[in-house]
Design goal:
Layout: H1 2-46, H2 48-104, H3 107-123, H4 129-165, H5 171-195
Helix pairs in contact: 2-4, 2-5, 3-4, 4-5
């Protein structure tokens, strides 16, 4: 009988010892469970990360669209600028060529002078020597001077417009324009001097003495 009680008491003590340990373990597991659960469930309930992702995607798309549009605007802006620089340059070259032609002469002036000389020969076939000189030599000379003077005037007008309108033109355009303007002024002076016989008068024929019969 004594041994039975002893075993019963020992069993009660073992049960009492085991009870608190088990409750402490359960409490520990319950205490740690809430700490590990929120990191797993929080992203699913809040929904904030998808919104941030959409905003970043939209900003990236807007940046890409801006990058694509920039070359188009710059390209369209460069085209009018390029055309604006071509017109003054071409006008300056043409004006300089006309200024040079007013000094050296042109094919048109040569043809018109030869035509005028032929007409003079036809008209003065039976005229006096002074008339022949005037029609064969003087008239073609004045025709050449008139053509050269017209070229000089056109060059001056064209180059003057280039210099006034193209104040922001390239340096080479203005240099060519100023050079052609100087040639045009010189050509106009030479043409005017030729027309008014400033560089040399018409040739004259000595009068033959009239012999008296006797």
């Amino acid at each position: 009988m004594e041994t039975t009680k002893t075993h019963g008491a020992d069993a009660g003590e073992l049960a009492a010892d085991a009870g608190p340990d088990r409750t402490e373990d359960d409490g520990a597991t319950d205490a740690t469970a809430p700490e590990t659960a929120p990191p797993v469930t929080a992203p699913a309930t809040t929904g904030e990360p998808p919104q941030d992702t959409d905003e970043s995607d939209e900003s990236d798309e807007s940046d890409e669209s801006d990058d694509v549009d920039e070359p188009e605007t710059t390209g369209t802006a460069d085209v009018p600028a390029a055309h604006a620089g071509v017109v003054p340059g071409a006008a300056a070259v043409v004006g300089a060529a006309l200024g040079l032609a007013s000094l050296t002469g042109t094919w048109l002036g040569t043809v018109l002078a030869e035509r005028r000389q032929l007409i003079g020969q036809i008209n003065t076939s039976s005229g006096s020597p002074a008339q022949q000189i005037e029609q064969i030599y003087g008239a073609p000379w004045h025709t050449t001077a008139a053509v050269n003077g017209v070229c000089a005037l056109v060059a001056l007008v064209l180059l003057g417009a280039v210099l006034l309108a193209g104040r922001n033109a390239a340096p080479w355009v203005r240099a060519v324009a100023w050079g052609g303007l100087a040639l045009g002024v010189l050509g106009l002076f030479v043409a005017a001097g030729t027309w008014f016989d400033l560089f040399g008068g018409l040739p004259t024929v000595a009068e033959t003495p009239v012999s008296s019969g006797g």
